[in-house]
């Protein structure tokens, strides 16, 4: 009974966002220019998922201005600075780092008074960035059949109950219940067809499926914190006042998941994925609301999941070296045979023809 209640509470949070989400004014327009791409490099054994950015220093980064998602005008850009996005993979998991400047804001238990971030990925071929998948159905008619092809995969992290440097997301308790919730830190795994039709993985309008789980893990940090020592809940609010600094959000997820419901994006080494990044912040001390987020672009950003180019280079060099070695050996054998033959011809005794005496 208690588990069912917790699931309903988690679902309620997702459903509450429908009330005030994406109330646009005027016709949507997007001028994103040329296609924007990110490269997820193959860097095994590099990243520790702890919210710290030290191990990302040598990774290529891309900077994006943060514009309001529903009204992407330059004059409404997030004032504190651009967002830096980095990504790598190790052949099993893919990792993302988001960093953005901002005064430290934290109110325990009040997600809307703390910064929040989300990653969104295209799943269905017809899923658009705008309108979170773009299915035209209403909340009472959107299903996996009526909105087929418009699925998007969303990871949303609200830090109001998350301790800095601690790991949140998928955990045995929520995954045992077969959904994408996170009752401890609200790093949830969600799918959607449009802003009004979004659910925790495994929970849907026509019934639930216990095979789902939260595949994401993540942590956060702020540069104003002293040292790298571990915090506990009693240390909240973890910093004094509202010092300026940089927020770090670090996430990981397996490249491939066991999803069979078309709710997770699947990454392929050597392939591409479509991604969007959202950022919420209590500007001027005012709580943010669901549709009041910033975005790094007004359309999908392409992510290239790179193969191990260095290994390919080493393999190419190795193959070239092996071919050269074989050729050199063959040449040596031929040279040796030629030397033996020439030596034999030179050292071979020259016979004198026998002439009988009677012929002299």
Automatic annotation (TrEMBL):
Signal peptide start and end residues: 1-21
Transmembrane regions: 324-347
GO molecular function: heme binding; metal ion binding
UniProt keyword annotations, A-Z: Electron transport, Heme, Iron, Membrane, Metal-binding, Signal, Transmembrane, Transmembrane helix, Transport
InterPro entries to which the protein is assigned, alphabetical: Cyt-c552/DMSO_Rdtase_haem-bd
Domain Cytochrome c-552/DMSO reductase-like haem-binding: 53-295
Gene3D superfamilies: 2.60.40.1190
Pfam short name (any one): EB_dh
Family matches, as CDD domains: DOMON_like
Protein name according to UniProt: Cytochrome c-552/DMSO reductase-like haem-binding domain-containing protein
Protein source organism: Acer yangbiense
Phylogenetic classification of the source organism: Eukaryota, Viridiplantae, Streptophyta, Embryophyta, Tracheophyta
